Structures are given as C-alpha cells and as structure tokens.
What we know:
Layout: H1 15-20, H2 25-51, H3 55-72, H4 78-95
Amino acid sequence: MDGIGKSSSSIPDLSFLKEMLGNDNELLKEILLIFLEEGPILLSQLERAAQEKDHNSLNQITHKLITELTTMGITSVIYDLKRVNKSGKELHSYII
Length: 96
C-alpha cells in the first residue's frame, strides 16, 4: 500500500486541493459542485460495469474515482477501489 489504506479517515481533507487551487475558494466551490454532480453518475456506471462484467469500463471508472477521491482528500475507499481496479485488470488480462 502507498500510505493510503483501510484505516484512512472518512472525513475529506481538502488541504491538497486547496493548495493546488492557490486557496481560491470560489474555484474550490465549483470543483466540489462538479464532483457532487458527477459522483453519483460514476458510482452508477461502476455498478453497471460490475454487473455486466465489463472489465475495461470497470478499470477506467475505478481509475477515475481513485484520482478524483484522492484529490478531494476522500481516502477511506481508495484501498477498496484499488483492489477492484487490480482485480479487473487481472481478469481482463486472463480473458484476452
């Protein structure tokens, strides 16, 4: 693991994102609103990809979620998403 694991806090830590944005609170608000709009869509797509055993989509969606959640400081689910991503890649390689 890379320092992010099962015991990570479920409370978002926006310090990294704030620093990336130069502490621009208006831009931070915009990004958070976009994330709140897109999050449920990504979760729905993730569920559908899992149900359909679409390993390629599963990998793409988990990768996007890992990146976005890490940037948002929401690390409590990163470990599980990485496991799903790895499993999907392994299954995809096995099938091909």
